Amino acid sequence: MARIIDGNEKNLIGKNVRKYRKKKKMSQRRLSEALELLGVYICRGSVSRVEDRTRTVTDIELYALAEVLGVSIADLFEGVEGMA
């Protein structure tokens, strides 16, 4: 059986991060700066890689992304296939 991490996508939330970031009219750089204020360092390029799902997201980063975007962690997983 293949493991989830063996696929090309490294996270499940990238598309929703982009959706909620754009909904707040926030640039990737501004998102990066807001995360930094919480002590979570994700550079603008890494935000891009999160959104295109080529970078993993730690649990701390997940929490901070939800906080900055003003959504719940569950919202970041909204519409993800295989999530109950």
List the helices and strands and how they pair.
Elements: H1 14-23, H2 28-37, H3 44-51, H4 59-69, H5 73-76
Q: CA-to-CA gap between the ends?
A: 20 Å
Strand content: under 5%
Number of E strands: 0
How are helices and strands ordered from N to C?
HHHHH
Shape: globular
Helix content: 40-55%
Give me the number of helical elements.
5
Q: For the CA atoms, what is the radius of gyration? A: 12 Å
- Any idea how many domains? 1
Structural class: mainly alpha
CATH class group: Mainly Alpha
Largest sheet: none
Written description of the protein model:
The protein has 84 residues and is mostly helical. The chain is built from 5 helices and no strands. It has helices at residues 14-23, 28-37, 44-51, 59-69, 73-76. The longest helix has 11 residues, at 59-69. The chain is globular and about 30 Å long. The two termini are 20 Å apart. The mean pLDDT is 92.
